[in-house]
Structures are given as structure tokens and as C-alpha cells.
Amino acid sequence: MSVFIPPLIVMGVSGSGKSTVGQLLADTFGLEFVDGDDLHPSANKAKMAAGHALNDEDRSPWLEIIADRIGAELTTGNPIVVACSALKRSYRTLLVAHAPTTVFVHLTGSRELIAERQSHRNHEYMPNSLLDSQFATLEPLSDDERHILVDLDNTPDEMVRIVAARLADLMEEDTRND
After folding, report:
1. What is the pTM (predicted TM-score) of this model?
2. What phi-psi label fits residue 15: left (phi over 0), alpha (psi between -120 and 50 degrees) or beta?
3. What 3-state class would DSSP assign to 120?
4. Cα–Cα distance for residue pair 96/135, rounded to 1 Å
5. Which of 13, 27, 133, 164 could join 53 in a cystine, given CB atoms 3.0 to 4.6 angstroms apart?
6. What residue segments make up the domains of the chain, in order of their start?
7. Phi-psi region of 139 (alpha: psi -120 to 50; beta: other; left: phi over 0)
8. What CA–CA distance (Å, rounded) separates 108 from 45?
């Protein structure tokens, strides 16, 4: 019997490891990985590269693109793994509009830990100076949002094992509730 894996959105602030963990999850489950950063309109990339935080108006078209992609892939029976900050509940609501079974994998860690990680990387258009705006925008997940919290103190491989175990628990709960 094959297990249905729902669409996964690996979320968190910039520098939390969304792309790394997202790719590992996709590889583990045999799913396609999509880096949400690649779907940003060029105006968003330019704004961030200039050191300016995006606002809701900037993010809206980007989130629609991601939501449409998740829904389209799921319609063809291909759930995907997407790396996307998904910082606000309103963003997450939009993201699951086409795929209510979506599970958010929130990579959590202290500002200090993430700032340390960022200091060792150079992102194409997301300067480290925007980290504080990311934390200011981040709204915690609610109990009614399908999610898995993963602490950044774990290695990427450990994070994947944690997600796989928690995902199995979620799928078992879904089966019992049907």
C-alpha cells in the first residue's frame, strides 16, 4: 500500500534552511522540489536586493503563483515540496486555498542562530539586513493549520527524519478522522 504524501511547504524566515531541507524532503519522498524564491516576480527581487522588505501587496502575486503551482501539481496527482517563507497566516491561507491537505514544515530557531547562518551565505537578492523584518512579520502557526515544527538545532538529515515521523502521525490521524 502506498502512502499519500500531501503537498509540503517548508517555511520560516530567510536563512532558516528552507531550500536545503525542502530538497532533502523532496528527495526522500520522491517528489518535485520548487524553491519559492525562483517564482518571485523580478520587481520583488529588485526591491529585496535594494534592502527593502516586501509588503503584502508585493507578496500577493508571488503567493498566488505558488498556490496555483501547488494546486495544479496536486490535480495531476503530484504533490510537491515548496520552500516559501509563508510568514503570515493570511499568506498560508492563500497558499492552501487550492490544496487544503498541505502541511507546513516550520523551521524554527533563534534570531541569533539564523543570523549566524546568514553570515556564512550570500543570497542573490535577500540581504541579511532584512532578517529583523522577517521576524517582525512572522506569525506563529495556529492549531488549526496543518503543520510540523522542526527545531534548527537538528541537522538537516535529522529534520527530515522528524518530518517523516510526524507526517506519518498526521496521515494516521487523517485516516482515523475519515
Report:
1. 0.89
2. left
3. coil
4. 22
5. 133
6. 8-177
7. beta
8. 24
